[in-house]
Every structure is written in C-alpha cells, then in structure tokens.
Fold each of these.
Amino acid sequence: MLLAAAALMLPACHKKLDYDYSRWYVDPYAAEAGRPISVMSFNLRAAHIDADENRWDNRRPAVKAMLRDKSPVLMGSQECDYLQREHILADDPRYGAIGVGIGGPTEECEEDIIFYIKDSIEVLSSGTFYLTPTPDMPSKMGQTNHYRVCTWARVKLKADGRQLYHFNTHLDTNESIQAPEMEVILSKVIAINTDNLPVFLTADWNCEENSTIFSGIKGGGFKSARHEAAVGDSYKTFNGFGKYGAQTLDHCWYKGFEGVNRFATIRDKYAGVPYISDHYPIEIVLKF
C-alpha cells in the first residue's frame, strides 16, 4: 500500500521538476557570430629621433615581446618608419603590412602602417589618402611641415568570412588644422565604405577625446571604444618617456560593431625596457 501510494505521487513530483534545458545548450553558430577580435593602435616613435636610452635598438625587443604577448589581429601604427616596419616583419613573421612611405621608402620616412596577422586576415583592398583638400595626390596643409595621411584596408576574417574596414591615421600637432583633417577622414570613410561594413579608426589624434574636432564623427554614428567598453581604463596614453606631461592622445572610434568587450592601455614592461615608446599601445576587443 505504501508503494502504491508513492507511485501515485510520482506524477505530481515529476511535474514540479520543470527544468529549462536551454541553459545547457549553446548554439555554435551564434557563438561564432559573436566572436570578438583584438585590435590595437600604437605610436611606435620613429627610429631616427632618439639617440639615448630610448633609441629604437633598445626598444625593439620590447615591441617584439609585446606583439607576441598581445597578438592583435590588426594593429594601426603611427610614426612607423621604413626601418621599424622591416624589423617588425622580421621579428614576427606572422605579420604582414599595409601602407606606403609618405615621402618615399627611406628609413626616415614615417608610415601609418596597418599590421595584420596573415593567417587570420585576407586583405581585399587597401589604400592611402592625404589629409588635405586633394586627398588622392601627395599634398600637405600649408600650416604644417609634415605630410599627414590615412591608411585603410578592407579585410576578411579567414575563420568565418566576415568583413570590416580599418582606417589608421595620425593627425597634425597644429590644432588649427585638425578639424579640416577630420573632415577629410570622415568624407573618405563614407565614400570608401559604401557597403556599410563594420569599421573602426585608430590613430594618434594629438588631442583629447573631448575635442570638438570629433563632433562630425560622433554625428556620423561613431562611438568611442574607451567609453563604451564593458571593461576598460582611463590611463593617459602619451607618457613622454616619463619626461613630459602625460596626455590621452590615442583613441579608437568604431561603428557597426555590437560593442566593445575590453579597452586596455598597455602599460606592461617588456624585455626589461621602461618605456616601449613615448606612447602606450591601446588594445581594443571589438564584438561583432
């Protein structure tokens, strides 16, 4: 009788155990669609500038170690001269490079290079334009002695075929021409990214993120990776080798991604070198 009574109670007991098995199920395609990518912006400090303890020969092992540690799929570099480009490619053969010398292939020629991991990235198209009213021909603003360019690339992730644009640049130190330079960049981004693919911009902008020069890009729907990151920091990115006042000059703007998982100012010490550059690299993990 006791067994019979227990048997009669079983349906009621079973009904209470109403498990939701969906929490143990993971859609592999959904996971793939949300896979983030790690990218970076890094002002290398051109090799020909310093002859003291901060010279490139001393910092080169630290850059090599940093890239091995962080392994960004895409890295927008500024002040990367021809010698540094060749050294980085030799030190880490995983990487290829996109970009041209502003004034020709000499060791002193700055290049706004985009480095990419060849096993992960297929370059579909790329180019360089000048931050002037005549962007498609070598030119510079009258108020500066420097050529300023923007290097861009349309790339495909080999793992799943997703495509995106990366724009990388270096604004002038003359604040009076930064706004016109930004207007050129925004107009070219719109003209080049006609498919409205996810896009991000890296640079040494030579100004803080609250500058009014960014009003146009904000109005165009771009967001700050630093401000939108789920996990991030607000460290100063320009360190001046510890000799000059720190500033936050390196930023990443993005559009068309779901969000930013992480933003990090890389202040780690590598290869026993106090400063990897006069700028800290910034690392951004973008989520599709």
Note: The chain has a mean pLDDT of 88.
Amino acid sequence: MTEQFEYKISVCVPIYNVEKYLRECLDSIINQTLKEVEIICVNDGSTDNSLNILKEYAKKDNRIKVIDKENSGYGASMNVALDSAQGEYIGIVESDDFIQKDMYESLYKLAKENDADIAKSDWYKYWSKNKFVKKENRISSAKTGFITNFEKDNSIVRINPSVWSGIYKREFLNNNNIRFLETPGASYQDLSFTFKLFTLAKRVILTDKAYLYYRQDNINSSVKAKNKIYCVCDEYDEIERFINLHPEFTQQHRTQEEILRYTGYMSSVVRLSEELRPEFVKVFSDYFKKSYESGILNEEFFSKVNKKEFLTLINNQEKFLKLVKKRKLRQKFNEIRKKLITIHIRDGHVNITLFGKEIVNHKLY
C-alpha cells in the first residue's frame, strides 16, 4: 500500500539575521501553486527582527512551523528541520533567496513521474540592487529527461552543490542517514551532504529549467573569517570518512573526491582575502603533496585538474599565490563581462543571455 502524506514537500528554511529579505522569501513559498507544502522555519538565534516576522507569518498560515533555537550554525539548523519534516520530499530555501511560484509543483511532478530519489533543477543568480538576473546553466540539456545515478554518470557529483535547487525523497535521506555536518556558521556545509546524496541515490532526474533566485549581494562571507575558512577542509574530510564507511565504493569514488577537493580548495583560495591565502595554501599544498606521492592521483584526476598548476602548488607556494592573484583578476573581469552577455554552447545546445535575459535557447543538431 502506498503511504499517504499530508504534505508532498517539507520546505526547510534556515534563518539567521535576514530580516531585510525574509518576507520576500516566505511570500514566494506560501504562494506556491503546490499547496501541500510544510514550511519549517528554523531561527538560529537571530538578533534582528527575523523571529517576529516568522511569528507574524505563522499566525496567518498554519503550514508554517517555527522552531526557535540558540545559534549553532547552518548545518545544525538544517538537521533540526530534517528531523522535524513530515513531507514526502524535502526542499530547501535559504532565507535570503526566493523561488518561482511553480517550483515545487514542477519538481514534485518530475520526481513522482520518475520515482526519483532526487529531482534537481538549474537556478538563477540574482542581484537586488538592479534586479539583475543571470541563469546559471549548470545543468546541460543533454543530461535531462532520463534517470541517472553515479554508476551511470559519475560527473553528477561535480554539479554545483546548490542543495536549494532540488528536492529529495525524505525516506531516501532517512534510510541512508544523510544529514549535514554541523560546523560553525554557514560555511560549505552542503559539500559532503551533496556527495552523499549523489553517490547513494539510485534514481536521479535533472532539469535545465531554473526556478530559484540565488541572491548575490547579501554575502556575510566566511572568506574573511579566519575561524571559518577551514570548514571546507572539514567537509572533504567528512567525504573521505563517508567513503571509508562504504567498502562497496570503488576507486572512482575516491578519484571524484580528490577532484572535488582540489577544485573546492582552489575556489576557496581565490575567494579568500589576500592576507589569509598563504596559510590556507600551505594546508592545500601539504594535503595534495601527500596524495601525489601516494600515487592515488590518476589520469582521470589530471583530466580535470591542470597538472602544471598542480605541480606549482605542491612545489612552489609563492609562485602559486601569484597564479591565484592573476586568476582572481581574471575572474573579476569575467564577472563584469557575464553581466553584459553570456554564450553557452554545450552538448549541441546554445544559450545566449543579454543583460541578464535569455534571448536564445536553441538546439543546434
């Protein structure tokens, strides 16, 4: 007999000092075309007006459940929400983001039609100041419309974590004890969570449609907080621990972890403020020097990682820091360019975006 759920989706909303954007976020969830949603708002010890706003909304909509707790970080807040959820699927919306009104109806339909453990979509970057929108194009149209998993396509673990752009079968999460790592603040906690999702899921369905607006100009970034910059290391150490718990996993799982760790560390180095980079680069270099000397880094690893850059990292940290500085400047230039026009040609499909608006979406062949 098929289990009946009062809620089709439990939407988990972690909240910390976000009064400026919270109403827009909540409005976008309560006005979903899918009405059978449970909205679990976890207030992580906010010191602004966030809790009062939550109470106000909860009085108006009985689908909203407010959990108020002392500050303990994003991972802990998400785990509280997951443990409380009653829906068939889990959705996540961060409290400074907002979603299109048909997001959960569309993803739920996609998941149910394919009996999926995971249904994941693309998303938009959003800047409040001028309401500028840019579709990310992280999910290729060539990978949509059919069931996949890690065994069929190990590259799914390298999709940007973006846990808020998908829904996850609650039974799948609970049966596999998939939860967030509870490290301080809100730093990188989706990395190990996502790796567990995509290595254990048997049925994954992707869509290149975008529904969520990921706000770019409300960044209380961990890159300037010395006590948080090593949370990314904790996440990859958790992935390594997780792999060791699964003797059925293959070398492919370890290779993907090493690729993810390298690209994750590289991304962190580029984002770090200049004064914090040398200390982190030393940790980065020491780890991969050991990996390289152990012989576990194979041809597939170097098909995704620039070997010349890699060898500079492990042999000449000062030179590597100069390379990072150049990459940072190039990144800033590309960000400016992308706000004007972006052209994506991938898997026989072309997308052209002009001033944040998609003007061409065409299959070439």
Note: The radius of gyration is 21 Å.
Amino acid sequence: MSLENSAKVPVEERLFSLVLALLATENGLTKTEILSTVQGYRQDFDHSGDNANLERKFERDKDDIRELGVPLETVQTPGDPGNNQNLRYRIPRGDYELPSDITFSPEETTLLNLAAMVWREGSLSAESRRALLKLRSLGVSADEPVLGYAPRLRVRDVAFAPLNAALGRNAYVRFSYLKPGEEQARVRTVAPLALVQHQGRWHLSAQEEATGIRKTFLLRRIVSRITTTGKSFPAPVGDESARALLELEEVWNAHTAVVDTEPGSDADTRLRKRRGTAAAPSVDGRNLLALHYSDINIVADELAGFGPEVLVVSPPDLRAAVRERLIRTAVDHGTAE
C-alpha cells in the first residue's frame, strides 16, 4: 500500500492500536509481528524489502507511549538471549490496570460505563478490528476484553488542524504565542515547515517572516486562533520533519538534570522509565537519577507534581523553577509559612 494511504492513519490511532495489540498478548510480539499487523505500520510493511523507516517510526512511538506512562516492556526470547531481532514487546496488564484499592461510587460507575460504551463504539476502527484478527491468526491470544484499557494518549492540540492545512498550502500563518515567564502573548507570523511530535508533545517548526530565523513552537503555548495572511512561500526542499526532530533531539540530549528520588515511590518508578534515564553517581547513598529534558518549564511542572518524592540536585535553574512552583502551590492552598 502506498505512503499516501498510510499517511491517512492519525498518529493517535496508530499509538492506540499499538497499545491495544501489546495489551492483548501475554507473551509479547516481535517487531516484525507488530510492523506487519498493527494499524499504522502494516500499510507500509514490505515483507521482502527494507523496513528501516518503519522501524524508526516504531522506535519513536515506543518512546512516546513510555513518556505517556505506559509500561512497555521488552522480553528476551527463551533459548535465544541477546538476539535483538527476536525481542518481544508487551504491556503487562497488572502494571497498567487501576490499583485494587481504587473504588468508585455507583454514580461514578454509571458514568464510566456510559463512557466505555462510547469508547467501544467509536474508538476502535474497522482497521483496528482487522488487526486484532490478524494477531489471532498469528496464534496470539486476545480473547479477554481489551477495550476497557483506554490508553492515556494526548489528543492533538486545537492548533494542529489549521496549521497542518496551512502547511499543505505553503501559506503564512499568524498566531499569539505565550512563552513561560511572559505576561502577554506575542503575535508571530511564520511560514510553517513541519509539525512533529517529540516526547509526546506536538511542535511546529517554522520560519519567521520578518527575520527569516527558523524557530520551534510548542503548540500548547499557542493561545489564539490560527489565521492565514494571504501570502504563500516556496515549498521547502528536503525532509523538514526529520530536520525538526533532529533539532529537538539535540536540545533534549544537551539538557540533563540530576534528581534525588524516594526509592520505591511513584516518582522513582515513572522517572526510571523515561527514555535515556540512568542512575547517577552518588557518594552518600542517595537515589540519584540523571534524566534528559527539552524544556525547563515542562520538566519543572512534571517534577513539582511529584511533591516531596523528588529533590532536584542540578542544574540550579531547574531546582529554582521547581521550588518556585512548590511555593506557589503552598501559597495558593494557604499552607506556606
């Protein structure tokens, strides 16, 4: 099937289909089984050719669903340890299900059942149902209901659709953009070059009309409607999406934080599962982790959300940003001294 047809599969559906498939199997799926059966991959899978681009897409998707808190595991094939081609991927149900001590009132249960009915009827496309049948044909057991496991996937930002439309027409766009620390949004007029997802968030790579400078904008910080200016620009040469992802990855690799987490806590578990996280050297027995990040404000929000389970060791500006958020929370709740 052509790339044109596969491009019609929204990224959210591809990620949902991947999560669904990995929940439906107890023993896991190999990369080949995933790429040849799961919606969003199988359209481009070549049974006798080169699937390198498809494999890179799968690697990015793995990072994205892990970033969203989905416990994706790799399992060695018995009798063939160390063979990466035969690695199997799975999502253990026990780690993805709600804790047993969480209960719901009758009213809450009724609302959840109604939501589940809507999810069951509307979220699983015919293509995804056919993918499940293909998995069964491979001998993968999927008899237990899996539709109750709604993946925690972010939907596209409101700005995505109009930006994507303008990108397809090579049309200049205008929007208000609010950067952290600024009180008022600034109007930006840019030529949209690529829309990419990195670390679970959508970004716009664009060139400013006035300066010609290439910049990256986080879609969640666009605070106005997207409007077109009536002007167009020449179609860019080369793979702008690949370039944008490479630039974001370079920023991500260039920023490293060291945090002290409480052993066995939710923070410790989740931060260890972040892509690139590694144990940091400690001379006093502290549980130190080194983790990468792209945006200091986003990671500060995340770390502050763990409360006392995390202490930022370095860098100082991130430590100050987390501290400022914790103090603000205490003041808002009247608990600051």
Note: Residues 1-7, 142-155 have pLDDT under 50 and may be disordered.
Amino acid sequence: MSRRGWVLFAIMTVLWGIPYLLMRVAVRQLDPGVLVLGRTGPAALLLAPLVIGRGHARLIRAHLGWIAAFGAAEFGVPWYLMATAERHITSSLTSLLVCAVPLFSVLAQRIRRTEERVTPRRLAGLAVGALGVALLVGLSLHGGSLEWIALMLIVCVGYTIGPIILATKLQGVPGVAVVATATALVAVAWTPWSVAHWPTHVDAQTWWSMAVLALLCTAGAFVVFYELVATIGSTRSVVVTYANTALAVVLGIAFLREPLTLGIILGFPLVLVGSVVATSGANRSLDAVLTRDADVAVNQ
C-alpha cells in the first residue's frame, strides 16, 4: 500500500474510532434522536455546496427513494439504536459488536445468491466469527444488558443493508451526493422528535462532542473514506473496521475507565479472524462496483 494509502487509512481509523467515545459522552445529556439530528444536519449542510456545485440534482431526484432507504438503513435507524445502547453498555462493547457486520454481509450475500457457493474456508470463518460474537455477548451479559446488545445486532443489520443498496440501486450516483442527501433526509425526519426532546441544558463538552461527530466523523469521514476506497480498493478498505474498533476499545478504557473484560479478550480476536477469513475472496464484481462508485465520487 502506498504512503498516501497509509495516511488515508490512519485518518479513517481515527475518524471512525472516536465516535463511540463521543457518543457515550453526548448521550449523557442528549436524547438519542437529538444526537442523530446533531450528526446529520450539520453534515448535510457542509456537503451541500459540493453537491450543488457538481450539478447532481437530476441524479438525486431520479434515485431519491433509494437514497432515502439508504439513509434510513445506514444513519437514521442505526445511529438512534446505537446511541440508545450506549446509555446502557460500554462504548468498547458497542464498537466490538459492530465488527460483526462483515459476518452479516456474507450471510446476506448467500441469501441474495450473489455467489455460486460458500467455500469451506468461508464457512469456517463464519463459525469462528460467530463464536467470537457469542463470547462477546455471553461474557458481557449483566443485569438487563441483553436488550441493548440486541439493539446493536439490529444496527449490524442496517449496516449490512446500506452497502447492498449502494451497490445494487445507487451505482451511478456519486457518493458525496448520496451521503449529503441521505443525511439531509434523516435530519428532516428526526427534527420533530428532536424539538420535542430538546434538552434544557447542554454543557460545552457535549457541544464539542456533537460538533466533532457531525463535521469530522460524519461529513469528513465519508469524503475521506471514498478517497481511501479509490486509492486502495474497497476490499482492503474494509480492514479499517477492525483498526477503528481497536482504537475505540483503547479510548473507552483510557478515558471512560471501561473494563477490559474477558469477553473482549477472548471474543475480539475471534471476530477479527473470522471476519477476515469469511470475507476473503469476496465477490469481485461487487468490489468493482464499489470502487467505481468511489472513483466517481472523488473525481467529479
């Protein structure tokens, strides 16, 4: 990988590694729905000039329904559920459970019959990854945490559906147009709820957390990620999921005094190994679609 690729990879590790810590801080004072609006609204406003300047309005109108579906699957529902879960479980566990997304993706490919067969190697990867998730969940259960872990598994489903929509229904729409429009639609959808649940007091730490989440971890991160995919390809870019998870765990332990549990020690390596093995030899046509979409997004 080139020096440029490593720099982009490092930036993405930080931008998608710190949100779990920031969400944990923000939901102490903010309703999860308010947090969703706080992330998506400013991000949409920041990206809007790029979309307008590049003349993507016609493409957006033609694909508005699928962009809305992508926004719901990738932002609107998962971010609300994740923020809700972070009120009850640690940011470390939250980030680790998101590592199950590649496993969900392989299962989705089989359900959609996008590949001819699942090799024994990939089946073994699924089994190892599933065991890792089971250890994470089973060894982290305590007083009523099961329902919040279940919410995170729904988040994983949303994160699985979102890329499928991108790859199959939004191939010709530049990534910046998709993200800008999706975040705008999600912000509009969550506005009535947020008005009704707006807090009476928000301290500076919460405001800073919201600002970083919206401007850097949402708007900035997706722009950088498309650049990363265009530089090193979509398959290798997926590895950033594991790097930012490791960072999230370290930050949770260092700044939030979250425990390094037996579930993390035993489960995370298994999820990591299982996901890498299960997703190896991924569908090349899908990889080409994602890479082509990224090329369009960053070059227009």
Note: Residues 282-300 have pLDDT under 50 and may be disordered.
